[in-house]
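=== RUN LOG ===
request id: a7f3
mode: sequence -> structure
chains: 1
length: 283
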Amino acid sequence: MIKFKPFSINRQGELITYDRPVIAGIINVTPDSFYSGSRVSGHDAVSRRAAEMISDGADWIDIGAYSSRPSADDVSPQEELDRLAAGIEAVREAAPEAILSIDTFRAEVARYAVTQLGADIINDISGGDLDPDMADTVAQLNVPYILMHMRGTPSTMSTLTEYNDVTADVLAETAEKINRLALLGVNDIIVDPGFGFAKTVAQNYRLLHDLELFQVFERPVLVGMSRKSMIYKPLGTEPADALYGTVAANTIALMKGASVLRVHDVKAAADTIKTVSLTFESA
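=== RESULT ===
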């Protein structure tokens, strides 16, 4: 077991320090995200979901308007922005002080979301690969950046799972991007190994087994395994029935040093964090 390491983020000039693992609650203002329970439409429904998540223990709300599942329809940047604007307005009504991370790989969407909509964190599934302007944009905006590992695009990633050693290769590819961002002056980086993106089920579990090795970056590590295929396929079930497996996987991640859990089920994650924390405190 690896004891949790406190970390800080810069929120619009305010340094926020966390002395326990963070919960990022997922709200998808899309009609086609892989888990139907995460899809929310309509101002009132989004507001209710955000209020419920904050009440259940969410530290951040992660809002996405572009589904990254392989068979999802493409949407234009304007449609993504329109969805985000409506979603953020609804979240802010229910939770005006909540920290908002924006799940987008488009630099123009990220810029508008931060400067015009008040987003606090950029969460980029491609780690800058899908938009060459993203790194410069993050540097200019001076906001925390969730750097996720992925290969290809959501529609091609399942064909790009050839690794010499999945853990070593993901670490090396992530290190290269961190170094590039550091040269631009970006230091507020949260590392995400990219569970489910360009990895087979077996490779996902190898990464989870080796998760403590990501401490080498000396940066917070975010894990996003909630109800994904790495959970439900081996169990022979569907996303709707994958909560217990998600809790087990998140427990392992916490014991291996995870700093942030990105989840659909906030209350379950809060209970998981509390139980693991009590175990550490008793040692």
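=== NOTES ===
The chain has a mean pLDDT of 92.
The two ends are 11 Å apart (CA to CA).
=== END ===
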